[in-house]
Write a structure and sequence with these properties.
The complex is a heterotrimer.
Chain A: H1 34-44, H2 46-68, H3 100-136, H4 138-153, H5 156-164, H6 171-179, H7 184-198, H8 201-208, H9 213-249, H10 261-264, H11 268-274, H12 281-310
Chain B: H1 2-30, H2 35-39, H3 45-55, H4 61-73, E1 79-80, E2 85-86, H5 87-122, H6 127-140, H7 144-158, H8 173-178, H9 180-210, H10 213-220, H11 225-247, H12 249-263, H13 268-278, H14 281-309
Antiparallel strand pairs in B: 1-2
Helix pairs in contact in B: 1-4, 1-14, 5-6, 5-9, 5-12, 6-9, 7-9, 7-12, 9-11, 9-12, 10-11, 11-14, 12-13, 13-14
Chain C: E1 5-15, E2 20-31, E3 36-40, H1 47-55, E4 62-71, E5 74-75, H2 81-87, E6 92-95, H3 99-102, H4 109-121, H5 125-138, H6 144-147, H7 157-169, E7 175-179, H8 187-204, E8 207-212, H9 215-219, E9 224-229, E10 232-238, H10 239-244, H11 249-257, H12 297-301, E11 314-315, E12 348-363, E13 368-384, E14 388-392, H13 399-407, E15 414-419, H14 429-435, E16 439-442, H15 456-467, H16 472-485, H17 502-514, E17 520-524, H18 532-549, E18 552-557, H19 560-566, E19 569-574, E20 577-583, H20 584-589, H21 594-602, H22 608-613, H23 644-648, E21 653-657, E22 660-663
Classes of the chains: A mainly alpha, B mainly alpha, C alpha/beta.
Chain lengths: ~300, ~325, ~675
C-alpha cells in the first residue's frame, strides 16, 4: 500500500544568484540561523499567527474563564431548563438547567485536555515505533509495519466506539482510547523520514568518521526528524478533538456532569428541531474555530520547516 | 498482471487474518458468550455454563478462533441475539441503502473536487484560489455532523427545501434514487468533508504536475492551455487520487455512520449505532471486520487501477 | 534575406513574491538558416530564460519588458497568445535538458511525437503517426515502429533525447532552440546526439541556437558564440576568434579555468574569485566588475556597451584583454610537487585486491533475489603513499561504488581492501574507529553532505569529537586553521549549511574530510555539482592541499580533464571493470584500450580546431545494463575491434609500460614483454 504525501509547497521562485564576494571562497550570505528562520517564516504567515492567538485565547477562556464567571455545572436545575439567551444567562441554559456559557468553558477544558493528551500519547508511541522500525530495517521493520498496516485497515472510529461502550467516561480513559489508536499515522511518517535520512550523505559522512550508531541516531537522525514530528503533533491535536466530538455526539463521551463540546452536541438534532439554536451553534462554532486554528498552525509549521531546508 | 493480483490477494488475506485475530480477541474480551443475552441477565451460573457447553463457548480460545474464521469464510458473521437475526441477513438488508448513500456521496465529491482542485492550481494565489482554500480549511476542520446540522437548520427547517430526516417510506436503494430530495442532504453532508480533503490533494497534485517539465514541453508544442490541461495534466494529476480514494474508505465508513444517524437513514451505519446502544457485540465487531475487508479490498483495487493507469508502475 | 531569428535589445524580468529578478537585460543577437550559434554561460546567467522568452514560455511572473524578437519578418513580442501558439512547435521549436521529466510519463512515444503534427497540420491520426515514424527514423531511433507504443521510462537517456528532438522537428521548424541538450547524458552518448544535431541542421537547414554551459560542446559545431554573464551578453564573436582572441575578461578567465586534457598539471587553473551577482539587485556598473582583476572605478560606475570595431566581434568591456591568459607569465605556480610522481618509488598504502560488489535485484512479495547489479567486478588497484589516483568512467562503471568500498560505507562481496597491509574493515569497535581516521571521504552533493541542523563548527568539530582527539581548545584551533586553509572566513563557523553556496559547502566538506589528517581521502565527483567558474577555485584548492598535506587521494569523476589535472595515475572503469591504468600521459597520449581511446576522442574540448578535426563517431550503441553485462570483455558490444574471442574470454590486465596496464585482446599498442 502506498501512502501519498500531500506537499502543500508551492515552488519557490529561484533567485538567480548569490551575493558578490571578496574572500576567495566568497562572502557568506547571512540569512538567519536554522530555528530562527523557521520561526520568522512562521510568524510571517498571518493566518498562522491568528491561529496561535485563537488557541491561546481558548485555553485562557476555558481554564481561567470559570474563575471569573463561575456557574453551577453539577446540580440539575429543573426550573431553568432550555431558556433562551438573555438576562442572567448569557447563552441560555441547556436541558439540565446549566448555564450554557459556563458549560462551553467546561466542555472546552476537557476538549483541550483530551486533545493534547491523546496527541501526546499518539505521537510518542508513533515516533518510537516508526523510529525503531526505520532504524532496525529488515525483518523487524517488515513485521512492525505489517502490524501497522493491519491496524490501519480497521476504521478508527468504529474501533474506538466499540471500546468506548465499555471503557469511557473520563478524560484519562478517552485520551488513552483515542491516543492508543492514533499512533499509526505518525509511525508511518517517522519511519519514512528515518529511512530517507539514513541514506543521506551526511549520515554516511558520520559513519566514515567513526561515529557509532548511538551518536548518529541522537545527533543526526532525531534532530532532523523532529520537524516532521512537531508538525504531526499539531495535526494530531486537531484530529483528536474531532474524534472526541464524534464520540460525544454519539453519546459515548464523558460521564455526566462532566462534558465536552462533543457531548454537548449529543442532543443537537432535538435542539435544532426545537429551535434551541443557542445550544448548537455557539458550541459548534467554538469547536470548528479551535480545530481550524490548530490546522492553520500545523500547516504553517510545515511550510516553515520546509522553507528552511530548501533555502539555498 | 495476474501474478501481481494473486500476490496482492495473498497479502490482503493475511491482513484480514490479522484483523480477524484482533477482532476475535476483542470479542472474546468484551462478550465471551451471549449466554446472558439469551437466558436473561439474572440467569443461574449453572444454566449459563450448560448453555455455553451446548453452543461451544467453553472450548479453548484457539479452537473458537478457527471456527470463527471458518464462519467468516462462509460469510457467516455471527448472530445478533438482540435483534434475533443473523448478522449476514442484517447486512444484506441494509447494505444496499448504505451503498447508495456512500457511493453517491463519493461520486459527488469527486465530480466537484477534481475540477476544483485543478482550477485552484491553475489560478494559484488568485482570489478564487484563496476563497476555496479557506472554504476547504473550514470544512476540513468541521465535524461532519455539524455541517449536517447547519444544512438541516437552513435548508430543511427554515426554508423547507429538503426534509430534515429521511422519510420512513424509503426502504430500498431504488426508492432512494427515485426520490432525490429525500437523500439530498445526507449525500451532500457526507460528500462535503470529502470534497475538502480531495480537492486539497488534487490541488497539490496538480501544482506538482504543473511545475513539471513535460507541461512545459507540451506548451512548447503549441498546445493551448485547455489542451495541455486536458490531454496532459488531467491524467497525471489524477493518479495519486486513485490511491487516496482507496485510503479514504475508512473515513467514508465513519462518515456514513454519522450521516445515517443524523438523518435517520436505515443503513449499516444506523445498524451499528443501534448495536452500540444494545451492546450487541456480534453486530459491532462483524461490522468492524466488514469495514476492514472493504478497506483492504479498496486498497487492492486502487493499486491495481494505478498499475493499469500508470505505465511506470510495472508490477514486480 | 532576413535572418531566421533576430533578437534586439531584449529584456525579461521575473516577478517573485518579494523581489524582481532581472533575468535578461538588453540582449541582441541573430541567427541564420543552416547556422548553429552558441549561447554559453553559467547557471543563472539568463541563457535559459532567453530561450523561453523567445518561445513565450516564461514561468509565472515572467514578462518581456522591452525589446523585439523577429522570426523572419514577424515580430513576436506583443503577439497575442493564439498567434504565438501557432508558431510554437511549428516554426520555432525547443528541446530541453532532462528528457525523462520533459516527456509525459503516461503517454506513449508515438502519441507525443504525433501531437504537434495533429495540432499544426490538422493531420488525421494515421497521417500523424506516419509522420511520427518518419521523423523518429530521421533522428536515428532504432526500431522506431516498435517504439511507437513504448513509454518514456522504457527508453535510455540517449534514446529519449532523440525522441525529444523528433518532437521538435516533427513540423519542420525554421528555428531550433536547444537548451543543454546533452548535459544529462554520458559522454559517449553526448557525442552521438551532438553529431545528430549537426547532421539534421545540414540536412534540414534549421537555424539552431545551442544553449549550454559547456565550452567544449560549442567549440566544434557553432559558427558564432555569444557569451552571457548575469543576464547580459558580454561577448559575441565567431567561434575560432572567441577561443583564440577573446576580448572580454570573463571569457578569458572562463576558458582559462577549464582544465584541459593536454594541460600542464603543475600549473594552477585560472580562478575567478567570488560569486555571480544577485539578479534581484544587480550592481550598477559592469556586472562582472566585482570579480574582475582589471576593474576600475569607471567599470563600477558605468555599464559598458556591447561594441567592437569589427561588427562580427562585439564585447562589452572598458578594458578588454587580448586573447587567452598566458599561464607561464602569470600567477605563482602551485607549491612544489613533482610533475610526475614516480609511482614505482612510492610505498604502497592502499591495496584493493579483486574487489567485488553486487547489489541484489529483488522481486515479488517475498523479495526473492532475481538478479544482481554487478557494480564492481574483480578490481585490483594499489595506491601509494601520497599518490593521487583518479578513477574515471561513465555512469554505471562502478567508480563511486569502489570509492564507497575504500572508505567502508559498503562491504565488498568479494576480495579485500587493505590499508598498510591490514584489512581494516574487518575490525570492530574501537579498532575500527581508530582505523577510520585514515580513510575519509568528500561527497558529491554539496547540499546533502552537511547536516542541515548543525552549525559549521559542529560539523567540523565532529570528527575530532568522535575520535576523541584533542581538548576543546585544541579542537577550536584546528578548526580555525582548517577553515583558513580552505579559504573561508571565521564567521562561517557560526552559520548553518543552507547559508552557503555550493562551492562554499564543498570547501567545508573538504575541510571536514581533512580534520582527522587522514592518509587517504576519497573525493567523489568533487566539482560536478558546481558552476564552471567555481570549479577551478575548488580544484586549485584541492591541488594545493594535496601538495601541502601529502595525503594519498582517490579522485572520482566522469570528467577526464578534472581527473587528469588532479591525479598522478588514472584508472579507467567500464561496467564494473578496470580496463586501463596509467599516468595521465599514458592515458592521453598512449591509450591502449579502445574504450579509453574512444573516450579521449569523444570528450568535447574547448578547442575549435581540435573539435572540427573529429570526424567519425568513435563509439556506437548504448551502454549495456550492469545487471546483465556482456560475456567476456564487457566493452565488446561497442568496440570496433571486437572479435569472437572477446565474447568468450575475459581479457587479462597486461603491461604496456611502467605502471601502464590495460585489459584488451586487441589493444591499440604492443604489449610490453611479460
Amino acid at each position: 500500500m502506498t501512502e501519498p504525501e500531500a506537499p502543500l509547497l508551492e515552488g519557490l521562485g529561484d533567485a538567480a544568484g548569490m551575493p558578490i564576494g571578496a574572500p576567495e571562497g566568497g562572502e557568506v550570505q547571512i540569512i538567519a540561523s536554522g530555528w530562527n528562520l523557521a520561526l520568522r517564516e512562521f510568524f510571517d504567515n498571518k493566518l498562522a499567527v491568528v491561529g496561535l492567538v485563537v488557541i491561546v485565547f481558548f485555553i485562557l477562556f476555558c481554564f481561567i474563564g470559570p474563575l471569573f464567571d463561575s456557574t453551577n455545572q453539577t446540580l440539575v436545575n429543573p426550573l431553568n431548563t432550555d431558556l433562551a439567551p438573555g438576562g442572567h444567562y448569557l447563552l441560555g441554559t441547556d436541558e439540565h438547567g446549566f448555564d450554557e456559557f459556563g458549560r462551553i468553558m467546561l466542555g472546552g477544558q476537557t476538549a483541550l485536555e483530551i486533545g493534547f493528551f491523546a496527541a501526546a500519547i499518539a505521537t510518542v508511541l508513533g515516533t518510537l515505533w516508526g523510529a525503531i522500525a526505520g532504524l532496525a530495517g529488515g525483518l523487524v521493520d517488515g513485521i512492525m509495519m505489517r502490524i501497522v498496516d493491519v491496524l490501519l485497515s480497521i476504521p478508527l472510529l468504529f474501533l474506538v466506539l466499540v471500546l468506548a461502550t465499555k471503557y469511557s467516561g473520563t478524560v484519562v480513559r478517552l485520551s488513552l482510547l483515542i491516543g492508543l489508536f492514533s499512533w499509526l499515522i505518525p509511525a508511518r511518517l517517522v519511519r519514512g523520514e528515518v529511512l530517507t535520512l539514513r541514506t543521506r550523505d551526511f549520515v554516511s559522512a558520520s559513519r566514515v568518521m567513526g561515529a557509532n550508531r548511538r551518536r548518529i541516531v541522537l545527533r543526526h537522525l532525531i534532530p532532523n526528524a523532529l520537524s516532521v514530528v512537531i508538525v504531526n503533533v499539531t495535526f494530531q491535536v486537531a484530529d483528536s478533538i474531532l474524534i472526541l466530538a464524534y464520540i460525544g455526539f454519539l453519546g459515548f463521551g464523558l460521564q455526566f456532569p462532566s462534558t465536552s463540546w462533543g457531548d454537548m452536541l449529543g442532543g443537537a438534532q432535538n435542539y435544532v428541531t426545537e429551535g434551541y439554536w443557542w445550544l448548537v451553534y455557539p458550541v459548534g462554532g467554538c469547536l470548528v474555530v479551535l480545530v481550524l486554528a490548530t490546522n492553520l498552525v500545523g500547516d504553517a509549521l510545515r511550510d516553515a520547516f520546509d522553507v528552511r531546508l530548501r533555502r539555498r | 498482471m495476474m501474478g501481481y493480483i494473486i500476490r496482492r490477494l495473498a497479502t490482503a488475506l493475511i491482513v484480514v487474518l490479522g484483523v480477524a485475530a484482533i477482532i476475535f480477541a476483542l470479542l472474546h474480551w468484551l462478550a465471551p458468550s451471549p449466554a446472558y443475552d439469551v437466558l436473561g441477565a439474572k440467569a443461574q451460573p449453572a444454566a449459563v455454563a450448560s448453555w455455553n457447553k451446548l453452543h461451544g463457548y467453553d472450548r479453548p480460545e484457539i479452537v473458537q478462533f478457527f471456527s470463527y474464521l471458518g464462519d467468516l469464510v462462509h460469510l457467516n458473521f455471527g448472530y445478533s441475539y438482540k435483534l434475533s437475526q443473523s448478522v449476514s441477513a442484517l447486512f444484506k438488508e441494509n447494505a444496499g441503502r448504505s451503498a447508495y448513500l456512500t457511493l453517491a456521496a463519493l461520486l459527488l465529491s469527486l465530480i466537484i473536487a477534481v475540477p476544483l482542485g485543478i482550477m485552484q492550481a491553475v489560478r494559484r494565489n488568485t482570489f478564487g484560489d484563496y476563497t476555496f482554500t479557506t472554504l476547504n480549511f473550514v470544512l476540513y476542520s468541521m465535524p461532519s455532523f455539524f455541517l449536517g446540522l447547519i444544512l438541516i437548520q437552513f435548508l430543511a427547517l427554515d426554508w423547507g427545501v429538503f426534509p430534515p430526516t429521511v422519510s420512513d417510506s424509503i426502504t430500498t436503494a431504488w426508492q432512494a434514487f427515485d426520490h432525490p430530495t429525500q437523500l439530498a442532504l445526507p449525500i451532500v453532508t457526507l460528500a462535503a468533508i470529502n470534497v475538502a480533503s480531495f480537492s486539497r490533494y488534487m490541488r497539490s497534485s496538480a501544482l506538482d504536475n504543473l511545475a513539471q517539465d513535460y507541461i512545459r514541453l507540451a506548451r512548447a508544442k503549441g498546445l493551448s492551455q485547455r489542451a495541455v490541461l486536458f490531454h496532459h495534466l488531467l491524467r497525471n494529476a489524477c493518479l495519486p487520487m486513485i490511491t487516496l480514494i482507496g485510503l479514504s474508505i475508512p473515513t467514508l465508513l465513519a462518515g456514513n455512520l454519522l450521516t445515517e444517524y443524523l438523518f435517520n437513514y436505515p443503513g449499516l451505519g444506523l445498524l451499528f449505532y443501534t448495536a452500540l446502544g444494545n451492546l450487541d457485540y456480534n453486530v459491532l465487531l462483524a461490522y468492524v471486520i466488514l469495514g476492514a475487508i472493504l478497506t483492504v479490498l479498496g486498497n487492492l483495487i486502487a493499486d491495481v487501477a494505478i498499475s493499469i493507469a500508470d505505465p511506470r508502475v510495472r508490477l514486480d | 534575406m532576413p535572418a531566421a531569428l533576430e533578437v534586439d535589445n531584449l529584456s525579461t524580468h521575473i516577478k517573485l513574491s518579494r523581489s524582481t529578478v532581472q533575468a535578461v537585460g538588453n540582449v541582441s543577437f541573430g541567427l541564420d538558416t543552416h547556422e548553429t550559434v552558441g549561447l554559453v554561460g553559467e547557471s543563472g546567467c539568463g541563457k535559459s530564460m532567453l530561450g523561453l522568452s523567445i518561445l513565450g514560455l516564461l514561468p509565472n511572473g515572467g514578462h518581456i519588458i522591452e525589446g523585439s524578437i523577429k522570426l523572419g519578418d514577424r515580430e513576436l513580442v506583443g503577439l497575442p497568445d493564439a498567434d504565438l501558439r501557432r508558431l510554437r512547435g511549428n516554426e520555432v521549436a525547443m528541446i530541453f535538458q532532462d528528457s525523462l521529466s520533459s516527456l509525459n510519463p503516461t503517454k506513449s512515444i508515438g502519441k507525443q511525437v504525433a501531437e504537434p503534427v495533429r495540432l499544426h497540420r490538422g493531420a488525421s491520426k494515421k497521417e500523424a503517426y506516419d509522420r511520427a515514424l518518419e521523423v523518429l527514423e530521421l533522428v536515428g531511433l532504432p526500431q522506431p515502429r516498435e517504439r511507437l507504443r513504448d513509454f518514456p521510462h522504457q527508453l535510455s537517456g540517449g534514446l529519449r533525447q532523440r525522441v525529444m528532438i523528433a518532437i521538435a522537428l516533427a513540423c519542420e521548424p525554421k528555428v531550433l532552440l536547444a537548451d543543454e541538450p546533452t548535459t544529462a547524458l554520458d559522454v559517449t552518448i553526448q557525442a552521438q546526439i551532438l553529431r545528430l544535431l549537426d547532421d539534421l541542421r545540414d540536412r534540414l537547414g534549421m537555424a539552431t541556437l545551442l544553449i549550454t554551459h559547456d565550452m567544449g560542446v560549442v567549440a566544434g559545431r557553432t559558427s558564432r558564440i555569444n557569451v552571457m554573464y548575469a543576464g547580459r551578453i558580454v561577448e559575441s564573436a565567431e567561434t575560432h576568434e572567441l577561443f583564440t582572441g577573446m576580448r572580454h575578461p570573463y571569457t578569458q578567465s572562463l576558458l582559462g579555468s577549464i582544465p584541459r586534457l593536454e594541460q600542464d598539471a603543475t600549473k594552477p587553473l585560472v580562478s575567478i574569485p567570488g560569486l555571480p551577482p544577485d539578479l534581484t539587485n544587480p550592481p550598477a556598473g559592469c556586472r562582472f566588475a566585482p570579480r574582475c582583476s582589471r576593474a576600475t572605478d569607471q567599470c563600477r560606475a558605468q555599464e559598458p556597451p556591447l561594441t567592437g570595431e569589427d561588427p562580427s566581434h562585439l564585447f562589452a568591456c572598458w578594458h578588454p584583454v587580448e586573447g587567452p591568459i598566458n599561464l607561464t607569465s602569470q600567477m605563482r605556480v602551485v607549491a612544489e610537487r613533482a610533475a610526475h610522481l614516480d609511482v614505482r618509488a612510492l610505498k604502497p598504502l592502499l591495496q584493493i585486491e579483486n574487489a567485488v560488489r553486487e547489489y541484489p535485484v529483488t522481486a515479488g512479495v517475498l523479495k526473492r533475489k532475481v538478479a544482481s547489479v554487478k557494480a564492481v567486478s574483480d578490481v585490483t588497484l594499489t595506491v601509494g603513499e601520497g599518490e593521487a589516483l583518479g578513477l574515471v568512467g561513465e555512469s554505471g562503471c562502478g567508480k563511486t561504488t569502489l570509492g564507497k568500498l575504500v572508505v567502508g560505507i559498503e562491504k565488498p562481496d568479494g576480495g579485500r581492501i587493505m590499508l598498510a597491509g591490514k584489512e581494516v574493515f574487518r575490525n570492530r569497535g574501537r579498532a575500527l574507529r581508530l582505523a577510520r581516521r585514515d580513510l575519509q571521504m568528500m561527497f558529491q552533493d554539496p547540499y546533502a553532505s552537511l547536516d542541515p541542523r548543525m552549525r559549521v563548527q559542529a560539523s567540523l568539530r565532529e570528527p575530532l569529537v568522535v575520535q576523541g582527539i584533542g581538548t576543546a581548545r585544541e579542537q577550536d584551533q584546528k578548526m580555525r586553521t582548517m577553515l583558513d586553509e580552505v579559504g573561508l572566513p571565521l564567521s562561517a563557523l557560526e552559520r548553518y549549511p543552507h547559508e552557503f553556496s555550493g562551492g562554499q559547502r564543498q570547501r567545508i566538506a573538504l575541510a571536514r574530510a581533512l580534520m582527522l589528517e587522514p592518509k587517504v581521502v576519497v573525493a567523489d565527483e568533487p566539482v560536478s555539482a558546481l558552476d564552471v567558474s567555481i570549479r577551478s577555485q575548488v580544484l586549485n584548492l584541492m591541488k594545493r592541499l594535496q601538495a601541502e598535506h601529502g595525503m594519498a587521494s582517490i579522485v572520482i569523476s566522469h570528467d577526464l580533464a578534472v581527473v587528469k589535472y588532479l591525479a598522478d595515475r588514472i584508472g579507467v572503469m567500464y561496467l564494473g571493470k578496470l580496463v586501463e591504468l596509467g599516468t595521465g600521459d599514458d592515458i592521453y597520449r598512449r591509450a591502449a584500450h579502445p574504450y579509453t581511446d574512444a573516450l579521449i576522442k569523444t570528450i568535447p574540448v574547448p578547442d575549435p580546431a581540435a573539435e572540427s578535426a573529429k570526424t567519425e563517431i568513435a563509439i556506437r550503441g548504448e551502454l549495456p545494463s550492469p545487471i546483465t553485462p556482456p560475456s567476456g570483455c564487457r566493452f565488446r558490444t561497442r568496440c570496433p575491434r571486437a572479435a569472437s574471442i572477446c565474447a568468450e574470454q575475459e581479457p587479462p590486465l597486461r603491461q604496456f609500460g611502467p605502471g601502464h596496464q590495460a585489459a584488451c585482446h586487441f589493444p591499440l599498442q604492443e604489449a610490453a614483454p611479460a
